[in-house]
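To whoever is on call:

I kicked off a structure prediction for a single chain this morning and the downstream step that reads the tokens threw a length-mismatch warning. I double-checked the sequence; it's 121 residues and nothing unusual in it as far as I can see. Pasting both halves so you can look.
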Amino acid sequence: MEIDAEGTATNYHDSSSGLSGGQAQKLVFFCLAAALRFQLADVDADVPRYGTVVLDEAFDRADPEYTRRAMDVFTDFGFHMVLATPLKLLQTLESYIGGLVVVAIEGGSRSRIERLTWGED
């Protein structure tokens, strides 16, 4: 069941059938975040006792709106996100990012790691 900010039920879902692609994607991320929070949070806790979720290229092929919806769901559930994602998504993810580490493969045989902070040129 979807409930708006005033507590009014706006939608009820028993499956993803009949939903648009965007609605189905939102439902999937909501269910994932809710299941994780249920497993990780103590009864009546505001946030999980251990709330880091690692996603590896989860949004690589997603559009910016979908990516923001998914990140909003995880943020609303109180999770700390660690994302492995291509640089092309930084503009979409910027408001969710507190730090950044860039890993580059040089010559196909070694990796270079560089930590970046906001405000650096």
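Update from on-call: the warning came from a stale cache, not from the record. Cleared it. Sanity check on the structure: The longest strand covers residues 100-106.
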